[in-house]
Design goal:
Number of strands: 6
Strand order of the largest sheet: 1-2-3-6
Number of helices: 2
Structural class: mainly beta
Radius of gyration: 12 Å
Amino acid sequence: MNPRVDKVKPLAKHRLELHFTDGQVRLFDMTPYLGTGIFAELQDPAIFNTAVASLGTVTWANGADLCPDTLYLGSIEQQLKAG
């Protein structure tokens, strides 16, 4: 089982900064999903920015969510800047 999301920060250009339960910080690009079903509503920044971590994944106010494994496997590990 992959780690689960415990914190999310919506970023510009429909990206998500994801903090996982194993301590990793990863970047996930939502762009490929924005033309499909309920995810099309996330093109609106007001809706996209409602992203919250919930039960190990990310959910939005419009009811959209993603499998936590999709978020982990489809994201890129980020290095946190010291400071």
